[in-house]
Design a protein that fits this description.
Strand order of the largest sheet of chain B: 6-7-8-3-9-10
Low-confidence stretches of chain B: none
Shape of chain B: elongated
CATH topology of the largest domain in chain A: MetI-like fold
Number of domains of chain A: 2
Radius of gyration of chain A: 26 Å
Largest sheet of chain B: 6 strands, mixed
Radius of gyration of chain B: 24 Å
Structural class of chain B: alpha+beta
Number of strands of chain B: 20
Helix content of chain A: over 70%
Mean pLDDT of chain B: 90
Mean pLDDT of chain A: 88
Number of strands of chain A: 4
Largest interface: A-B, 21 and 28 residues
CATH class of the largest domain in chain A: Mainly Alpha
Number of helices of chain A: 13
Oligomer: heterodimer
Largest sheet of chain A: 2 strands, antiparallel
Helix content of chain B: 10-25%
Strand order of the largest sheet of chain A: 1-2
Number of helices of chain B: 8
Strand content of chain A: under 5%
């Protein structure tokens, strides 16, 4: 009896081991692709950030921390004194500020939208979700140029405002931070709406009734019941908007002109006209770390929201 | 305080268009007395939950009004009504602890922290959940969640507590136990309970009075014994407990002639002339089996169904009708499938009931 069960276990263990071996073999191509396609380039970027810039482009294979140093400090070209790199700080601050503003705006617009969609009947929901996803079908560059058309001095926004008599002179919206903010909010709004929709759709509206029953008015029900329960959706949407906003390239380039750079544009500059590949590389790594920090915050926030026990 | 806690006056609720919409409640009027355990009993779709939701404030009647403690609250939102609900699904807030759930209503009413703490402790003791105050709902069993839902609704000391089939998700043993506890809590708190259920046994166990509902109407209101012993019509007789129905003909003021011509005493409403075709109802436990010669009716035993304490004998009367008699398992001697048997009725067993459409 015990012998039989013992041999049975061995057979099971054998089968499990064989299954694991087979699964490893099957996933090998994907793992190789990930290694070569994702980790490889990242490793090159990391190595480049510790090298010296070449005279015209590329790098000179001499190890140095110069690029990392340059992110925050600059050496005066005349007397070699070391000071803070104000221009860089301005760009970082603008990137963070615009990304946070974009997140906030998309959240404020996305929450009622998602709530509206989630409370429709089945077929209507599909229709509204379909409308939300339509922008994904068109190239980002083309959509950004469409926004540019609308915002420019002779664009429909200014023309409409002048025709209505609200203003007499066209507003200079284009090539300002406002234009970038409008563009990014437009581009990333669906990324906010979809996770919010998923969270609100799962919300048990009987809890809302229970709230009303226990003397909570509309505002209290929203703050004390709906908001905490859909918080994971809010965090997910915020991360999905904040992360790409921080690395945005096309929108600030087209709508912000050359002056209102964000980190993404600044990195591109280092690999182009700036001819400082190591600085571009170190900035990229820094951006990566900021994004990872944001994701870590998300994981911690959402794991605390998991059902207890 | 008035004697009537809640008064529903000529309530009609139509879902959809007023003309041709779904009539969930049809001119329902009922007075629920202060401090009573009142049960709305009926099959699903009879309108009992709709009526409860109207008292809670989640639905507005199409016509009619709801009076609570003498005040018209028909159009008040739920958060302005001194009424709390125990939901069928419990609807506990998953992100709050047991104590926070129970204190929620008091907090929304702007009570002081210390006052909330004391009230929460008291009501958790009432439902015997003191040990679980810091747990989250997902860490509780179904029965425990049920107790928390009850505590949460009781904590603000509502003038009326509404219970929407709160025991239906529990298993039988737990349900029986909770029935007794619910009754105890109602007596201890002195709060008016309005209980909705489709389980007649539950209704009979706990209620002071029961309203039997069907198809948007109240068919009968009365104490459990009254409803069981004197059902107003065929639906009530059938829905509460078990009943056999036999065709009969009125013979005199308190007698009917049965299918085989035998005459038997029967309770009946006034004004039925001799010769009127009627239906008589009789409970299985009011039927005695006896030797064939001694019976008022006789038949063939078609089926014997054993269920522990008792046995049901299905007796084919030969004219297409079948009667179910309840026989105690000890006295089943002599009964066997296919055998002939006589039938007698206990005194007052037969009752003429109104046919319901």
């Amino acid at each position: 009896m015990s012998e039989a069960s013992g041999s049975l276990r061995t057979l099971e263990a054998d089968a499990a081991a064989r299954r694991i071996r087979r699964n490893w073999l099957l996933s090998l191509p994907a793992l190789a692709l990930l290694l070569v396609g994702a980790s490889g380039p990242l490793l090159i970027v990391l190595v480049y950030s510790f090298l010296k810039p070449g005279d015209f482009s590329g790098v000179i294979w001499e190890p140095t921390f110069n690029a990392w140093f340059q992110i925050l400090f600059s050496r005066d070209i005349f007397d070699d004194t070391i000071g803070l790199a104000d221009a860089h700080l301005t760009i970082f601050w603008r990137s963070v500020r615009l990304s946070l503003s974009t997140t906030l705006i998309t959240l404020l617009l996305g929450l009622p939208t998602a709530y509206f969609i989630a409370t429709r009947s089945g077929r209507q929901r599909m229709f509204w979700l379909f409308l939300i996803t339509i922008p994904f079908w068109t190239n980002l560059l083309i959509r950004t140029f469409a926004i540019l058309e609308m915002l420019r001095n002779e664009g429909i926004v200014n023309n409409a405002l002048i025709d209505l008599g609200v203003i007499t002179e066209p507003l200079q919206i284009l090539y300002t931070d406002t234009a970038v903010l409008i563009g990014m909010s437009y581009v990333y709004l669906p990324l906010m709406v979809l996770p919010l929709y998923a969270a609100i759709e799962r919300l048990d509206f009987r809890l809302v009734e229970a709230g009303y029953d226990l003397y909570a008015n509309r505002v209290q029900v929203f703050r004390r019941i709906i908001l905490p329960i859909i918080k994971p959706g809010i965090v997910a949407g915020s991360i999905l908007v904040f992360v790409p906003s921080l690395g945005a390239y096309v929108t600030p380039r087209v709508l912000g002109g050359g002056k209102n750079m964000m980190i993404g544009n600044f990195i591109e500059l280092q690999f182009g006209q700036g001819r400082n590949w190591p600085l571009g590389a170190s900035l990229s790594i820094l951006l990566l770390f900021i994004v990872m920090a944001a994701l870590l915050l998300y994981v911690r926030a959402s794991s605390r929201e998991e059902p207890h026990g | 305080m008035s004697d009537v806690a809640v008064s529903a006056q000529s309530i009609t609720k139509i879902f959809g268009p007023t003309e041709g919409g779904l009539r969930a409640l049809d001119d329902v009027s009922v007075d629920i007395r202060t401090n009573e355990f009142f049960t709305l009993l009926g099959p699903s779709g009879c309108g009992k939950t709709t009526l409860l939701r109207m008292i809670a404030g989640f639905e507005t009647p199409t016509f009619g009004s709801i009076i609570l403690d003498g005040k018209d609250i028909t159009t008040d939102p739920p958060f302005r009504r001194p009424v709390n609900t125990v939901f069928q699904s419990y609807a506990l807030f998953p992100h709050l602890t047991v104590a926070q759930n129970v204190g929620f209503g008091l907090e929304m009413r702007g009570k002081q922290k210390s006052e909330i703490g004391a009230a929460v402790a008291e009501v958790l003791a009432l439902v015997r959940m003191e040990q679980m105050a810091e747990r989250y709902p997902s860490q509780l069993s179904g029965g425990q969640q049920q107790r928390v839902a009850l505590a949460r609704a009781l904590a603000p000391r509502p003038s009326v507590l509404l219970l929407d089939e709160p025991l239906s998700a529990l298993d039988l043993k737990l349900r029986k136990q909770m029935q007794i506890e619910l009754k105890r809590m109602q007596l201890e708190t002195g709060i008016t309970f309005i209980f909705v259920t489709h389980d007649q046994e539950e209704a009979l166990t706990m209620s002071d009075r029961i309203a039997v509902m069907s198809a948007g109407r109240i068919l009968q209101i009365g104490a459990p014994r009254e409803i069981y012993n004197a059902p107003a019509n065929r639906f009530v007789a059938d829905f509460i407990g078990e009943s056999n129905f036999l065709p009969a003909e009125v013979e005199g003021p308190a007698a009917v002639k049965l299918g085989n011509g035998a005459s038997a005493p029967a309770a009946m409403p006034d004004g039925l002339g001799a010769g009127t075709r009627v239906t008589v109802a009789v409970r299985p436990e009011q039927i005695d089996v006896c030797p064939e010669a001694e019976g008022i009716l006789s038949g063939t035993i078609a089926e014997l169904v054993y269920f522990g304490t008792d046995m049901h004998a299905h007796i084919d009367l030969g004219d297409g009708a079948t009667l179910v008699a309840r026989v105690t398992a000890r006295s089943d001697a002599g009964l066997e499938k296919g055998g002939r048997t006589g039938i007698r009725f206990a005194t007052g067993a037969l009752r003429v009931v109104e046919e319901t459409a």
